[in-house]
Batch of 4 targets.
Target 1
Amino acid sequence: MDEPLVSLPEILAAASRIAGIAVKTPLVRAPFPGIAGHGTPREIWLKAESIQPIGAFKIRGAANKILQLTPEQIARGVITYSSGNHAQGVAYAAREVGAKAVIVMPSNAPAIKRAATLALGAEVVDVGLASSERLAVAEQLMREHGYVVIPPYDDEQIIAGQATCGLEIVEELPDVDLVLAPVSGGGLLSGVASAVKQMRPEAHVFGVEPELAGDTAESFRTGAIVTWPAELTSRTIADGLRTQSVGERNFAHIRAFVEGIITVTEAEIRAAMRAIVTTARLVPEPSGAVAAAALLFHADQLPSYRKAVAVVSGGNVAPALLAEVLTES
């Protein structure tokens, strides 16, 4: 990609634009026993994106994109393809401006996310498991009906919107020296890294993803985007991180601003969910727990730090799954 990277002025403009829709979420102290807090030289903070109006960070990018549509585009309606959180972000922001929203979702999307998307007034179109199939159906419907596509991650305005999360981290914790964010398509990580590194160049930024959906880690290692088949990425409990490949624009930002990608196991994700609930009293979905899992279980792959932030990207977890995870030994 030879397109310019998202600039700090663009991120600041996005923050101002979305202020009436997205919440400026807090950093919540997480004194994980033996890892951070009392008796250690380290502090860990969790960026609580789980308390956004839709329960996830995706409202940021969706709002930034949709609030820049023309009246003619709003009248045509919008469409996107998503397993759940971006679907809710688009549905929420579209409702705010009075636009019709059509969401193409995989058949294995969590019922709680599908129901929430429908409750926001969106029309849902079900397809198979592959993210490539979601994209193809969305493009077909766009051609047939004239809808405006709101991409889930590979878009400058989406990246700038997600970058407001990183902007808030540095504003609230100016001396942060390590930031970790989940990565799937790359919208959140590329945005957070762009903001953090442009505001505090000395800080380290890492992405985290499940081992079972480790396409971005492989891409980062090899220097070229690789695609994993849907039957592999769909194995992880972290349904928000099942995208088959990182976006091109996102990968350009990741290569420019991110120091490394760490992968975590399914057991580590579940343990991190329990730790977040019991230590910080936040409710994470599996995707929202991967960044904390890296801090808890992969310290040997991270630089030394005094103040670290892990982004809890969402909290849209089915009650039955949450109960199952919390009652495991």
Target 2
Amino acid sequence: MTTERPIIICTRGSALALAQSDMIAAQCRAAFPELRFELQIIKTTGDKLQKASMAKTDPSLPKGLFTKELEVAMLNGEADMAVHSLKDLPTELPSGLILAATPKREDVRDVLIYRQAGSAHRGFPSHLKLKDFPKGATIATSSTRRRMSLLAVRPDLNIVEIRGNVATRMQKVADHGELDATILALAGLTRLNFKINADGIIHGDAVPKGLFATVLGLDEMLPCVGQGAIGIETRANDERVAKICERLNHAETFSAVTAERAFLRGMGGGCQSPVGAFAEISGNAISLKAISFRDEVVKRGEARRPVGEAIQLGEQIAAELK
């Protein structure tokens, strides 16, 4: 490759989005020191609609709440790569754009965040399980999947909506006694350099004092499609950027999320659809576990196929659960 104009990496401006984009930019610079990479921060529709409900599918909300403006920038030639939390990227992309790479995935599990006993508001001991919350406890989440997963285990829980970034949500639990807990993705905490100690205490920059964390097992809560993965979206015909993405891609992660996204597409849903899925590779095989809460009915599916049939695997389970 020859030295040309800078390659523009566009991203949202949230702390997590910037952490992920900085990580990708660092990988690009290390792999291609002769090229220049610059970040461009773009505010998306989802960033502007801070009061819109994310807890249910609202037909008035546009698709690609957190991706559309980044995609427009690429299609207009103002940016060359977009770094997304893959869970936010719709399964149907605009003509001319592709999911070009997925770096190695982080832990896909969700984390229960709650106050320690002895704090100003009601608190609980460390290593708390969902079954341990008192009857009618209030848990805040903006995810339909998380809400339905919680109610499937504890139908007595009071589920309320919450908005804001990772730090904001933790602060709300620390400050508001009417909230007993919230749920966050472990991958997001990890990428923001938060650490959960063996005693359950969260450590990191600007973490509110007095909070515990419990990592939820996949048997308790399947993640949303693409959770823990970063998606790099590019123009389909950009050969220069394609060579960069080849170095960034982690093949096993790409195959796993391909199966999950095929499942989500087969279910006809977007990032707020009441479904969860997790695919993993073992040797030459790929397995997929999925759950659907459509129409308030819980349906589960699981299957295994050769890695090369990741799309067919997702479509197969979607057909079974629809």
Target 3
Amino acid sequence: MRITAIQEKTVSIASPITNAYIDFTKMTCSVVALITDVKRDGKPVIGYGFNSNGRYGQGALMRERFFPRLMEADPKTLMDDTGQNLDPFRIWTTLMKNEKPGGHGERSVAVGAIDMAVWDAVAKIANQPLYRLLADRYRGGHADDKVWIYAAGGYYYPGKDLTALKDEMKCYRDLGYQVVKMKIGGAPLAEDLRRIEAVLEIVGSGKFLAVDANGRFDLDTAIAYGNAMAPYGLFWYEEAGDPLDYALQADLSRHYHQSMATGENIFSHQDARNLLRYGGMHPERDWLQFDCALSYGLVEYLRTLDVLKQNGWSTRRVVPHGGHQMSLNIAAGLHLGGNESYPGVFQPFGGFADGIAVEGGYVKLPNVPGIGFETKAELFKVMKSLGD
């Protein structure tokens, strides 16, 4: 067996929304199709992938470096020991040939999208849902039959007043979500507190509300927000400062004694290890949000989970960023704590299978081979146009 072609298309996921740091009016992502010579129902097995929102499409990097390495490799070096399927780890090694260590920037996003397509193909060739394949390989065959999810929204956009913010959060609750998340840091503290209190009117308690500053704050501002928000008892306070400023995170933890979350902009197991060593994170209180689609893919994610284990963290404290089906499969198959969800933005890439409702804050996964992209009609329409 062999990979016969690999293709990329950059598509728009633009939206007139902002967080505390960036706007999304020109946001793009890369869609990847990895085509094999394995046939199912007379058609070649195709693995699909894409990168999560917040980082732009990576087509140039893929075509310049990563696709040629993959296509020039001896096909036998990309297969597993049975010769009947692809080996994601061997493929990852091929992709990263001649790449210097460190400096985990845009290449981690390019490799992450390709890696997603590889795992989709591997699970399809094995005729298993990815989460079942992962559970069989790494969790003794035991997969979670449903995954806890929260609704991420509460962005800033022109003309969005408190009534519109409350209506948005009420919609999420009506869809079956229990916990919702909103943005902070894009307005003065007093205004953000009014926004938080407006959302609390809808969800009823701080334990159902998380807030996200997207790395906007310096230490003094992060502490000021933390002191002001402490009485609310929020679900978590996310990414207060720059994601690589471990000292700021550690200092904040000495002032804010409730749950915090970070990690969506940590792109390697080495950086994850440094966060745990120096960031003051508490394994019984805090949450980690590493996103495989931005951080070299699932191959590297497994290394990151090993780092967590070595440092006394349970995988149940991991709730990935991204809000897509790949992270959902990883959460179910590897026993993570849950997954983000984007009910209203970044479509069609955000969200899960059509026809599976959110119930009590949980969602189930479809029983189809691969990641399940084919069960999300609008998303698969985009993907299929690339693989045809």
Target 4
Amino acid sequence: MWRGAIQFGLVTIPVKLYLATESKGISFNMLHKTDQSRIQMKIYCPVDDEVISRGDTVKGFEYAPGQYVVVTDEDLEAVPLKTVRSIEIEQFTPRTHVDDGAVKFVKQAYYIEPDKIGLKAFYLLKDVLEDKGLTAICKVVIKDREALAAIDPFSKTMLLTTLHWPDEIRALGELELPAEEPEIKSAERKMAEQLIEAMTGEFDPAAYKDEYREALLQIIEAKVAGEETVAVPEAEPATNLVDLMAALEASVKAAVDSRATGAPTPVGAAKSKSRKAAAAADDAEDAKPARRRKSA
């Protein structure tokens, strides 16, 4: 989807970019409710009161309320940017130092494919980045927008990840956060550490799947076949866990039991099991005074 070159120093490496991800979501078409015919989206001009074609539209920037200036394709091409057809590497930084700031807010990942003429330089750059544990910070223009990006070794190639500009990232001041963090008891911390340790393991992306999409596909396939769809049971209401220790202990037990089976428990099932165990612990705690009153 993009062709240009990686530039750093006097080195030029011709490359192509390919989207590294694709959306697997289920898309729907808008239908007319009465006859289920597919509706059409029209471009309507309220001043002339008529439907116009997309070819009759131009780009406009609103510089004041209701006031626009037209920006043509020629204007966009005339923007003096050297990154229109090149990936300009600005600096190299240790990969461990890119955990803060804009690098956490990624936009899109692209595979980089080197042209044959630049194979040696491409893999030389990849090897050095890999050996030194470095990330290349760069800028590139994609779809009429200059993007901040990072280049990292990935498998047999390199991955270019576009990032948000710092001024695009909202400040934490917009959140309602406490002035001071709540005090954590040592017993609660220890139990939380046990829970995290019980749930710690090697990340295997293949172990995860989009359960919502699969369930939705089953409903669609049933409707196509003329079958009656089965109602999904309502989600269990979240329990009001006043006793944090009881919740942590129940969660640890659920996580340990899950690991003992030898197979990873789906996250949803693990949470449900943990909630039930925690609720049972709460019920047992609430029942103690009643037992004492009966005994008295």
